[in-house]
Trafficking protein particle complex subunit 9 (Characodon lateralis), 285 residues
Amino acid sequence: MSVPDYMQCAEDHQTVLVVVQPVGIVPEDQFFKIYKRITSVSQVTIRDSQRLLYIRYRHHYLAENNEWGDFQTHRKVVGLVSITTCSSAKDWPETAERFHGQKEVYSSTLYDSRLLVFGLQGEITEQQRTDVAFYPSFEECSDVERRVEDFVESIFIVLESKRLDRATDKSGDKIPLLCVPFEKKDFVGLDTDSRHFKKRCQGRMRKHVGDLCLQAGMLQDALVHYHMAVELLRGVNDFLWLGAALEGLCSASVIFHYPGGTAGKMAARKPSISHPADAGKRHRP
């Protein structure tokens, strides 16, 4: 990665990444006040499946890190929450355009997004839109947490559909080769019909499905897929992806053996306003 995160721990592998950012001019104290409320929704029980979805929030995340999303799915931005102020109806089109531009930055990986607008009143606010919520002020916004929960559920629906789609064995379909950014040039001109290449594709996809299962709360399925990936990738000496599959397997095993979190009783899923300075507390001594 362009910026390694040395504070990562096992539990981070089962989280989905949501970026929360201001659009336009938003007072810093008000932004972090809302950010703190948003990050309080760190886990959501999905109603129909009774599975837990864990969320990791960042207010700053380099877009180029998204290029590593196929390698480790917890590194890709799948959700965006934008916070903005808008005082009059004539400013609304420009605000909406800025929000659209912000979505474009993460468009290759984004599952869903929301815009929270503060200060705007009138006819525009009466329009029913799933991706926009209007509030009269930063003080009058009692349902922010509920809206974030609904947003997280919509992310889960997309995640689950991707997991099911990629976990299904479609005999005859060509499995795409997942790559990290620097590998793409190395595979130009390779024989894509060789047994070695097909096994590489299968192994990498199994590892990817293991990541999706872990995020979607399917721990046992994740372990199965990681084990299969390890065997396939070891057989073709695909060492970078073998290492990633073993890391996924280790993370899933730690989560299985320490369901309360690796920080013991004080399970550290607490949100942090700054860069993940609190992440170190999640490690066992």
Remarks:
- The CA atoms of residues 14 and 215 lie 4 Å apart.
- The first strand starts at residue 15 and ends at 23.
- The chain is about 40% helix and 15% strand.
